[in-house]
C-alpha cells in the first residue's frame, strides 16, 4: 500500500485501462493547494477556457511562492506530487488554467480554484473533452479548521458563492460553439473544497433548470411549465461526477432541496476512518466511502495520509470508535442549539484550542504536553457541551486529556450528553 504520491509516481496505466476514480480526483484536489505561477492563465480573461500544459508550472524560481504552508514536509510532498503528475504517462497530457485566488479578511473569504483539462490524456473518450474543476480546501491549520466549521453553521459562505460563479463561467465558456460538443465536467475538492464543489454543482443545476423554465415559457409550442419544475433534471447532463474528499456536509434544508437531489446521484464522497470535518452535518442520500489512513485522529484529514492499493482507495468497514464518538457529540450539540449559539460556540471553541499557541494540529500534537494545560485553562469556565465539542475537535490526541475535558464535576445537562461523555472515555485513543 501507499498514498496518492506513490500512486502518481508508479501508476502508468492510461484511463482506458484504469478508469478515472476518486483517487485521481484526490490527486487533482491536492494540486489545487499549489499557488499557481503567472505562467498559468488567470480566471475569466478569455472567451474560452484557457489552459497550458501542467509542466509549465515546473519552474524552480517560482517554487517559494507556490509552496507556502510553513511546513517543509508538506511543501516537499506537494512539489513531489506536482512533479510526479507531470512525469506520469497517465497524467502527462493534463493542462491547467483559469487560476483564481481571493483572500478577503473583511469578507472572511479564502477562495481558490483552477481547471484541469484532461482532453489530451490517453483513454478518455468525451467528444467535447473533459474538464476537472478543482476548488482549494483548507489545510491543517486551526484557522482552516475553523473555516470548515463555519461552513457547517453558515450556508452559503462567501467561498461557496465564488465557487458557484466560477463554475458557471467555466461551464458557459466550454459549452461549444457552431455545433461543437460541449466539454463534460467533473468537479471536486478536498475539505472546504469538497463542500464548494457540491454547492457549485447545485447552483449550476439550479441555473440550468431556471433556463429551461424560461425557454418553456417563451415558446408557445411547448407545454405549460409543471408546478414541480424545481425537480427537473439538469438540461444537459454535462456534470459527470462531483467529488468531495472529507468535505463538510449541509443542513437538511439544503440536502432536501431539488437542486441537491438533482446531483445527489453524481456525488462521490470519501472520508477517512477518523473523519471529523467530513462528518459535519448531513449528506442526505449520499453514502460515504470510508478510507484507511496512516495518520492519527484529526490528522487523517490530510489527504496525503489516505491509503491506495492497485489504483483504488483501501476502504474500511466503518468509522473508528473515536470518530463515532465525535459524530455523536457534534450531532447532539448541533441539535441542541440555535443558529446564533452555533456561531458563538464555534468562535469559543476556536479560541480555546488556539490558546495553546500552535497554529496547526501537527504542532499541537507534537507539543501536546505543553498545550494541554493551556487548553484546559481556557476551557475551564465554559459549559459542558462546549468542552465536549473541544474534545471532539482534538480527538485522536492523548485520550487522558479528553477524559479530563469532558468529565467536569457538575452533572451532565441531559441524557444525550451523558452518553457522549461515556463515548469519549470508552472510545478515546481507539483510532
UniProtKB/TrEMBL annotation:
It comes from the Bacteria. InterPro entries: AB_hydrolase_fold, Mbeg1-like. Pfam families: Mbeg1-like. Residues 404-431 are annotated as: Disordered. SUPFAM superfamilies: alpha/beta-Hydrolases. Transmembrane segments: none annotated. Signal peptide: none annotated. This is Triacylglycerol lipase.
Amino acid at each position: 500500500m501507499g498514498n496518492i504520491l506513490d500512486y502518481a509516481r508508479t501508476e502508468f496505466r492510461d484511463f482506458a485501462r484504469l478508469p478515472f476514480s476518486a483517487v485521481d480526483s484526490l490527486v487533482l484536489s491536492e494540486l489545487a493547494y499549489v499557488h499557481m505561477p503567472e505562467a498559468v492563465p488567470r480566471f475569466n480573461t478569455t472567451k474560452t477556457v484557457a489552459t497550458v500544459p501542467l509542466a509549465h508550472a515546473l519552474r524552480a524560481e517560482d517554487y517559494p511562492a507556490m509552496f507556502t504552508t510553513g511546513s517543509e514536509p508538506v511543501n516537499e510532498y506537494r512539489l513531489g506530487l506536482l512533479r510526479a503528475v507531470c512525469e506520469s504517462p497517465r497524467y502527462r497530457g493534463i493542462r491547467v488554467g483559469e487560476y483564481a485566488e481571493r483572500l478577503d479578511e473583511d469578507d472572511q473569504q479564502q477562495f481558490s480554484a483552477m481547471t484541469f483539462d484532461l482532453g489530451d490524456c490517453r483513454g478518455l473518450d468525451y467528444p467535447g473533452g473533459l474538464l476537472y474543476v478543482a476548488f482549494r480546501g483548507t489545510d491543517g491549520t486551526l484557522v482552516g479548521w475553523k473555516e470548515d466549521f463555519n461552513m457547517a453553521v453558515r450556508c452559503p459562505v462567501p467561498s461557496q458563492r465564488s465557487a458557484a460563479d466560477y463554475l458557471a463561467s467555466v461551464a458557459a465558456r466550454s459549452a461549444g460553439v457552431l455545433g461543437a460538443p460541449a466539454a463534460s465536467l467533473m468537479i471536486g475538492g478536498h475539505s472546504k473544497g469538497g463542500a464548494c464543489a457540491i454547492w457549485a454543482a447545485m447552483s449550476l443545476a439550479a441555473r440550468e433548470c431556471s433556463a429551461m423554465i424560461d425557454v418553456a415559457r417563451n415558446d408557445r409550442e411547448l407545454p405549460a411549465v409543471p408546478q414541480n419544475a424545481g425537480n427537473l433534471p439538469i438540461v444537459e447532463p454535462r456534470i459527470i461526477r462531483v467529488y468531495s474528499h472529507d468535505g463538510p456536509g449541509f443542513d437538511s434544508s439544503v440536502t432536501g432541496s431539488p437542486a441537491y437531489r438533482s446531483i445527489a446521484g453524481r456525488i462521490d464522497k470519501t472520508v477517512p476512518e477518523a473523519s471529523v470535518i467530513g462528518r459535519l452535518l448531513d449528506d442526505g442520500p449520499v453514502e460515504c466511502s470510508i478510507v484507511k489512513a496512516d495518520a492519527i485522529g484529526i490528522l487523517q484529514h490530510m489527504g496525503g495520509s489516505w491509503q491506495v492499493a492497485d489504483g483504488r482507495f483501501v476502504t474500511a468497514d466503518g468509522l473508528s470508535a473515536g470518530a463515532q464518538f465525535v459524530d455523536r457529540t457534534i450531532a447532539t450539540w448541533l441539535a441542541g442549539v440555535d443558529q446564533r449559539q452555533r456561531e458563538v460556540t464555534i468562535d469559543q471553541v476556536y479560541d480555546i484550542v488556539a490558546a495553546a499557541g500552535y497554529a496547526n494540529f501537527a504542532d499541537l500534537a507534537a507539543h501536546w504536553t505543553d498545550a494541554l494545560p493551556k487548553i484546559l485553562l481556557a476551557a475551564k469556565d465554559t459549559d459542558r457541551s462546549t468542552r465536549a465539542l473541544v474534545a471532539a475537535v482534538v480527538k485522536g490526541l492523548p485520550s487522558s486529556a479528553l477524559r479530563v475535558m469532558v468529565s467536569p464535576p457538575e452533572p451532565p445537562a441531559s441524557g444525550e450528553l451523558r452518553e457522549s461523555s461515556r463515548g469519549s472515555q470508552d472510545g478515546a485513543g481507539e483510532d
